[in-house]
Amino acid sequence: MASWISSWVNGEEKNNEEGKVADTEYVAPSADEIRRKRLERLAAMEAAAAESSPPPVAAQEPPRQPTPMEIKPPTTVDPKQTVVIPSPQARQSDALSAEKKRKSATKRDPLHNALQQILGVTLNESQASHALMYIPVESDTIDGNNSSEILYMRLLNEDPAFNSTLEYLFAVFQKVRTESFGLSDADLLVVQSVQEQCVNYSVTCLLEPEMFSSRSTPLEAFDRLVRSPNASTQPYLEALALGLEAQGGNAALGRVVGPILQKLVSEVFLGSQSILAVESWSPCIQTIGSLVRIKGFATVFTNIPGFLLTPPLNGRRLQDATALGILLRFSSDAPDPAIKDMFSNITKRSRQDVNKSIDSLRSKMSLLHDIVTDIFRSLLKAGAHAKDRVIKWLEQAVVVNIEGAKENPNPALVSTAGMLINLNVVLLRLCGPFLPPATKHSLIDPSFLKCWPNPLFPEDATKLVQLSTNPLQNSKSLGDFNFITQCFYLTVRAMHLGPVATIGKYMRLMRQLSYVQNHMNDQSDPRVRMQFEAMATAKMVIDAKLLQPELLHEMVRFALLSANAVCRVCLSPDGKAVVSGFQLPLQTPVEELLVPYVPEHVVEDIVNILLFVARFAPEELKSFAFDDLLTMTLIFLSSPQMIRSPHLRAKMSECLFEICLPPHESEDRPTAGIPSAVNSLVQSRMAQQHLAPCLLALYGDVEQTGFYEKLEHRYNIACLLKYLWKCPDHKAAFLLISQNQPAFVKFAHGLMNHINSLLTDALTNLPEIKSLQEEIQSPQWLNLEESLREQKQSLLSEKERTVTSSLQLANETIHMMSYLTSEIQAPFLTPELEDRLVGMLNSVLVKLAGPKGLELKVTNPEVYKFRPKVMLREIVETILHFSQYESFQVAVASNGLYDMTVYRKCTNILQRTQLVDPTAIAVFDQFAQTVEAFYSSNTHNEAMLGDIPEEFMDPLLWQLMKDPVTLPSGYVVDRSTITQHLMNDPSDPFTRAPLAIDQLVSNDALKAQIEAWVSQAK
């Protein structure tokens, strides 16, 4: 427990190193001295009240006119005697005559009746009761002339009905509200004067508690008062705050309210951390919220010990040793068995029952968020000092939780995920006024990113662009920027440490759940089932806090605002340009922009948030426009100098796939397909001009990502391209990339590599799947040991998943090759690509229709997305698109994978199944015959050439070179060979030194020698 928490619990007040004024040592005075000081103080206050109270009202003439007020000087009161009360015998002589007069007067005087109830006094001894204390005065009624004197006299007498004078004064203040109805304006002034006097006496009571004798101290009474709020409590506290500030400034406020606030926070700290324990934390936090709505009290709260974090600085101490951290730490992360019990036996419960548990958790989280957000708003509105202290705490919160960005953070150094999500809820609500489009976006000052050292982003954070020289920086601090800028960048960083980090954990948990579920059956080891139950419970707990509709909605709003801010940074040096009217690709040098200052995670978080919501709560996206997301994606895809990471650019295409692609366009993996996003994708003029070429280029760039990531990204891109190809306004843009030879070669090479690798993996595993299926169905299966059967079943499941994934992507890729080549042929027939194209087509034909084709027959092929007839049809269509080109015919015949029997078999299959129309079958048959003729000619020519000189042979493929080039290392290879190599590996294959295609030098002399030798040999 933090030391300052201990002091709160023990009722001690230590010196506040952050500016709190300590109380001076107090020596208890004697009883006589206390009474003397009390009477002197009260007399002075009563006289002051008489001077400031409104004039009294005449009894006979309506309306009543003010008359001077005369009260006996209080200094004549004997210190030994509170009030001189006549004996019963002395009063009895005139009691009967006065009684009738009093009753008559009070019946016709509403002011008297109101003040009697407000003050709890009576001037008629016979009416005295536990609710009305008898006060003997010479007047028959209570009015503006004597109300101050009567209140003064009432305070000098203890009342068993109240434990403290402060309780009585609050009761008087409270009754003014209920007893003022029906009074005239003049009477209301008198009543309000009494109320003001009550506040003044309350201030004295709290600052000089020895002035009044009572059964409990004024601070104890004040504590009880603030914990039992009603309609009058807040006005009373507001008036009390003004009185305390006027009497003793911030020191007086701190002396009275500071201990109460400290005690409330300590009680929150000592209670249960579970979000379920509402009865434990809610009353105290709500009381704190009520107090800090008053500006003076809010300032005191920001000055209490432990408001800001002191060393050691880490996220766990921020959560457990600062006031705001303690208020935010309640979540489902607490080690509360009740939370686990809410989701126990998850596999045996209905979804409706589980949803009830989730809703129960969320309702309690929502209550906490509402209360704590109000506290933050009150503190930020309390004045410059309080606002600066809150901003400083928020800065500490994101700085000390840097550990939260790690995949496996140290729990001893970081706040819990639940606390960080609570913090983000508060920050997102504070951002609310400037989140909607066209509000105050322009007030976000991106020059904050140039601060060095940056108060929020770590020095080693990866930037979108890494420059060779350090960019210019400034030495401003967070406090030098406006609140909108502060709030925006605080939320940017907090989102990365909180919700985005939890999203990463959630996705990893989902993969683990899927794996365990796939390996679990009715006979599974009970330990596996227990593991699954534990992980399922963990998932539901995260669902409760992370999939809150309000949180997701605000996260999406903030992500789209961030996308707009990122676009601005890319468009002008000051980062404040309007996101419209610009041309792509961007031409401004990166060095002149703020892009090199932008942490990479800012953009990645935008993408991760939108992807997460699209997959798990797509309904939360339906109310948004996604123009800024599409614009940001187009900027980065068309201007790769703005962002170096191919992984991040690939994730942007994934975001378009999930949000902007209609669901039916991805048969195997339905998307969110948000209508507004689909419309933006189709109708945006910028997208019509640039998206297709950008995606085609990206298809080649993702070769640099990991193997499995590459497959996933290319599937997404293939689905997007297929949809855009069907959009008339987009189709023309596909031709643009074919005019950019280097970019097209990169794309086409990736496309063909993709087809080859996918089909090789899938079609290699299909025979193994078939063999395992046959073994499982055989009578001998039951004779195997159980462990061996489980091992083989597990292997079958793994291979089935691999094959399904590979074929799913292969189907889209082969289809893309078919429709692209229907209108784009020439670029594929360049020396760099033609041999590669022919090799890919021949390889697929051999796999589908070759000698081993029968081995591909498996049970339920559609389960694995294996559609051999569709594949064969689209490969044949692709071949037909090039069939009229002689160079293509020669290349097919010259390719090492060419098999004339396979082409003949394909013709027979086409004729038997009518996969294509008869005209196309005839064209294919004629093409096969032409290729066969070229093959025969090639065989004859090779025989004539005989032994080829070694210097004419390509050293990598060991075949006759047609276009030799010299590498910087001096080695000579064929241009097509080295070009294909550089697509996969930008290095010299002989020396491993970096190598680019523009470093190749044509060896014209050797080329002439080869051509001369071939001519002579023939």
Automatic annotation (TrEMBL):
Catalytic function, reaction form: S-ubiquitinyl-[E2 ubiquitin-conjugating enzyme]-L-cysteine + [acceptor protein]-L-lysine = [E2 ubiquitin-conjugating enzyme]-L-cysteine + N(6)-ubiquitinyl-[acceptor protein]-L-lysine
Claim: Nucleus is one of the keywords in the record: yes
Region (Disordered): 1-33, 45-111
Broadest EC class assigned to this enzyme: transferase
GO CC terms, sorted: cytoplasm; nucleus; ubiquitin ligase complex
Pathway assignment: Protein modification; protein ubiquitination
PROSITE patterns reported for this sequence: U_BOX (PS51698)
Keyword terms, alphabetized: Cytoplasm, Nucleus, Transferase, Ubl conjugation pathway
GO MF assignments: ubiquitin-ubiquitin ligase activity
Entry EC no(s): 2.3.2.27
Ranges of compositional bias, category Low complexity: 45-62
U-box domain residues: 947-1018
Principal location: cytoplasm
UniProt cross-references to InterPro entries, sorted A to Z: Ub_conjug_fac_E4_core, UBE4, Ubox_domain, Znf_RING/FYVE/PHD
UniProt feature, compositional bias: Basic and acidic residues: 11-23
Subcellular location(s) of the protein: Cytoplasm; Nucleus
GO biological process: ERAD pathway; protein polyubiquitination; ubiquitin-dependent protein catabolic process
Family affiliation: Belongs to the ubiquitin conjugation factor E4 family.
Entry protein name: RING-type E3 ubiquitin transferase
